[in-house]
Amino acid sequence: MSTTSLSASNPTPFPPITCLIGPVTLSAYTTPHSPFVPLFICCSVTESWLQLHTFLIQCDLYSFLIENFCRNGMLDSSIETFIHMCKLGVPVSPYVLSRMLTFLVDSNCVHVILDLYGQVCKALRGQCFCVYEFIVVALLNKGKVETGVDFHSAVIERGFVVDIVACNKILKRLCKENLIGVGEDFFNVLMMGGPEPNVVTFSTMINAYCKDGKLEEAIKLYKVMIEKGVSSDLVVYSILVDGLFKAGKLEEGLRLFSEALDSGIRLDVVIFSSVMDAYVRIGDLVKSVQVYGRMLKEGISPNPVSYTILINGMCQDGKVMEACGIFGQIVKCGFVPSILTYSSLIDGMCNLGNLKDAFYLYESMIKTGYEPDIILYGVLVNGLCKQGLMGDALRLKRLNDAVKLFIQMGVYNIKPDMVTYTVIIKGISEVGRLKDASYLEAAQELFEQLTESGPEPDIVTYNTMICGYCSLRRLDAAVQLFQKLIQGQCKPNAITCTILIDAFCKEGNMDDAMLMFDKMLEKDPEPNLVTYSCLIDGYFKSENMKSAFELHEEMLKNISPNIVSYSILMDGLCKRGLTERASLVFHCAIERGLVPDVIAYGILIRGYCKVGRMAEALILYGHMLISGIMPDAVIQRTITEHILEADQRK
Fold first, then answer.
1. List of residues 6+ apart from 496 with CB closer than 8 A
2. Per-residue CA distances from 146 to 142, 183, 212, 243 (Å)
3. Separation between Cα atoms, residue 204 and residue 187, nearest integer Å
4. Averaged pLDDT, 521-538
5. For residue 504, is pLDDT > 60?
6. Greater pLDDT, 639 or 603
7. Most confident of 2-11, 159-168, 362-371
8. For residue 635, pLDDT beyond 50
9. 191 or 648, which is more confident?
10. For the chain, N or C: smaller number of CB within 10 Å?
11. Which domains are seen in the chain, by residue range?
């Protein structure tokens, strides 16, 4: 059998390029190794057999030609062969199609694809959705986003039908790569030209808006979806409810959650967990537990996330025993507690001072194979340092534990963050203030280590060190560190300046205190109520009552006072026996709408007792009780002692 007879039997000749292949190439397709041989065995040598043979040769030959043309960059030849293949009605294999389309995309010939689009669809018997999706995804992979969107518009303009499922895949791809603006343009093209968006299309854009912090746009799009008659589904409700809660819009989120409950859609554990978490964030554990109960009533089983939310809420509310019970349920149900679950429970134990159980749980977590993260280490270090203020022996032991834990972080290649450094420095500084000044040197070494190799110290860390120096009356070191601070990138805040002003005032150095205050007025940061209060108290202690009142009047022009600032004035007056003026200040505070606390009452009661005005002291004591304020031990002792003294005089 000759190749000539085979070619002649076909009414449509091969393109001229096939002449270059030659008889040897064609005959290779009829060797015993050809995958088409079994088909020939089943047929008799008839005209049908010859037609089938010719048809299969054409199929394989065109694949061969297109593959080689594409590999050698022969654009015109590949297009010519592909068009001829389509005209002959030769079935297009997925490989040939993808190879050809990829070559055209790589060659920036999208316009050619548009010209061939109708023929391709015809060759695929109308199943052109895969072609559309393949081309647009290929363009996106090449970073040709705008070209992809333009291609979609051109396909629609030419009257071709596009599948919304393919469009949704493309929209998800755009949003996943954070191309929200392009995704928005693509969505608008769908709205105007089709295909008509469905609930998946809307949910994709709503989710993208929420992740990008554009909650208002997400809500607007949700309303458009409802107006278009597209029914919301669980995905849309879950996305919006979670977005509203994270934005702090609790009421709107709950309203949408109620709408989801009434819609008849079967909700899942994800949306219930979002609502539970929202209530925990505002400290309403009762409501969170109620939602948990409703979830169980709906027949929805909790997962580790919902359990962890409950544990976190209970620990924040001080209900650590109940949280331990929930933890037991997690294990009983066969779930593996996450490191977040462990961290929440350990934090709750540390806040109650139960470090023994906290470290026991920590060790159990390590045995399960978890590696502690920076958050968990921060929880433990903070707990140790808090408990480090309970007594000398206990303090030294637990502070050492905190330092050991801090060092252990390096074993797991965890670099301490700024919060952990600050907590450790503060803990060591507190010990130095209460017991041994040498501990402050250790804090200083740690701070220097931080500046040299750790993360850049923030203002909280600087304030911690400056406060530590001031508490030990080392103002020279505090000022030196302050100078280093203002020369760097991190700038002092009102707390920094107020710490130094308070230290100067306590040393009776009002000149330097006012110098710092004047610098605050000239530049940033602006002085706050605490700053003014420290200076007023300093003037009183320096026997400069006139300046104290002048500064108080100056403060009233810019800052609203609180009961503490008035208490400072009262205390300064009472110590000088000026109880009448102190009483006027007391009533002035009440007229401003301020509510006196036990400290304010105590200052004036002691002032009255000091000058022998027991009647006024007892009347004020009675007012305090009527106001629902319980006296402290100092007030009770003062009243009792002066009553006894009065009786003895009689």
1. 459, 462, 463, 466, 482, 485, 525
2. 11, 10, 21, 29
3. 10
4. 87
5. yes
6. 603
7. 362-371
8. yes
9. 191
10. C
11. 561-650 (1.25.40.10)
> To which residue do tokens 């702090």 refer?
248
DSSP 410: G
Q: Are 262 and 280 in contact (CB under 8 A)?
A: no
Nearest to 425 by CA among 470, 478, 463: 463
56, pLDDT greater than 60: no
Percent above pLDDT 90 for the chain: 14
Q: At 216, list the tokens.
A: 């208002």
Contact 602, 632 (CB under 8 A): yes
DSSP-H helix ranges across 438-556: 438-453, 459-471, 475-487, 494-506, 510-522, 529-541, 545-556
Q: How far is CA 422 from CA 93, 417, 575, in A?
A: 65, 9, 38
CB atoms within 10 A of CB 158: 11
Helix/strand number for the chain, H first, E second: 36, 0
pTM, full prediction: 0.49
Q: Alpha-carbon distance 198 to 232, whole Å? A: 10
Whole-angstrom distance, CA of residue 92 vs CA of residue 125: 10
Q: What is the pLDDT of residues 110-153, one digit of tens each?
A: 677 666 666 666 655 545 556 777 777 777 777 777 777 777 77
φ/ψ of 31, rounded to 5, equals -75, 165
Q: Are 600 and 583 in contact (CB under 8 A)?
A: no
- Rounded Cα distance between 23 and 20, Å, is 9
- Amino acid 409 reads M
pLDDT tens digits, residue range 463-498?
Answer: 888 888 888 788 888 898 898 888 877 888 899 999
Candidates 343, 411, 417; CA nearest to 383 is: 343
pLDDT of residue 502: 92
Q: How far is CA 92 from CA 113, 124, 252, 340, 601, in A?
A: 15, 7, 54, 54, 93
Q: Tell me the two tokens of residue 635.
A: 């007030």
If DSSP codes are grouped into helix, strand and coil, which group holds residue 7?
helix
* Structure tokens belonging to residue 568: 């400072």
List C-alpha distances in Å: 171 to 73, 157, 193, 224, 631: 32, 19, 15, 18, 67
Mean pLDDT, rounded, of the chain = 76
CA 65 – CA 41 distance, rounded (Å): 27
> By the 8 A CB rule, do 461 and 450 touch?
yes
Question: What is the C-alpha separation between 310 and 272, in angstroms, rounded?
Answer: 12
> Residue 327 has which token pair?
């933890």
Task: Tell me the HSE value of 93 on the side-chain side, using a 13 A CA sphere.
Answer: 13
- Which token pair is 495? 């707390």
Measured between alpha carbons, how far is 513 from 500 in angstroms, rounded to an integer? 8
- The answer to whether 270 touches 302, Cβ cutoff 8 Å, is no
Residue 428 pLDDT level (bands cut at 50, 70, 90): low
Give the whole-angstrom CA distance, residue 501 versus residue 515: 9
Residue 592: DSSP 8-state: T
Out of 86-90, 245-249, 618-622, the most confident range is 618-622
Phi then psi dihedrals of residue 526, to 5 deg: -75, 140
> What is the distance of C-alpha 649 from the center of its chain?
69
